[in-house]
Amino acid sequence: MELYQIKTFAVVAEEGNLTRSAERLHASQSAISLHIKALEEEFSIRLFKRSAKGMALTAEGKILLEKAVAVLDAAKELKLAAKGLSGEVRGLARVGLHTSPIYLRTPALIKAINKKYPGLALSLNQSSTWDIRKDIAAGELESGFFYSINQPEEISAFMLEQPHLKIVGPSAWQDKIENASWEDLAEMPWIWTPPECSFHHHLTREFSSRNLEIRKAMVADSEDAHATLVRSETGLTLMRADEADAEEAKGGICTCKSQGLILGLYFGYKHGMSSDPVVRALIECVRSVWEVDS
To answer: Taking every pair of C-alpha atoms in the chain, what is the biggest distance, in angstroms?
Structure first.
């Protein structure tokens, strides 16, 4: 029995699907199957019921999963203890970025890490807020930046700032948009975001609290696409204030002066990992760059 086999067992139990498990473990489906088969042969029991819908734990598998998670947690604690004893912080830190690296002060973060932790290498991964949160929880990222209305539950995080969000629309609609009420805005078409997006949740809550229906012209998940679609008079959208001001300066876009929203910008990491030397170094440098107290 090898530790990688136990990890495979835990991941397949969580995903219930070989394809997703293989993607998460960066391995082939055949390798995943072999790991599970080897454990089943060694334990002389079936761990999973296999069907067209996926893989479900057997009663025995459910019991052993608790032990497997405990083994993985113990291995993680052993690794953390060894890192702490080694003194120098070394390794690769995978950090998720959900928006502009300049806005996230990435150049300053790189400079701070290089100065204080020269043995720590950064891998910056551009992704969406929802994927970053998911990947941190799964251990595929050490940390990441993301938006959220509330403090996240599935990972640990601290707030960096509360950016102001502006409602923007085509400049041709300026007379209707500039001093519009929420009722007025509800009558106009909107360029919406995917359901996992914090902007989606925030706007839905604002309109729902007023018993207003939303006119969704279309859904787009790219910040650049939203600006282009606004200029083509497809509808309204939300933008961070600094982005909205920059786009308005280019022309073709105007902003609503009467309404706006506030969102939280967070930096997060996996529960229980604050004592990991790499994560601890990231937290320290991010707090320093953003001037956020611990």
So the answer is: 74
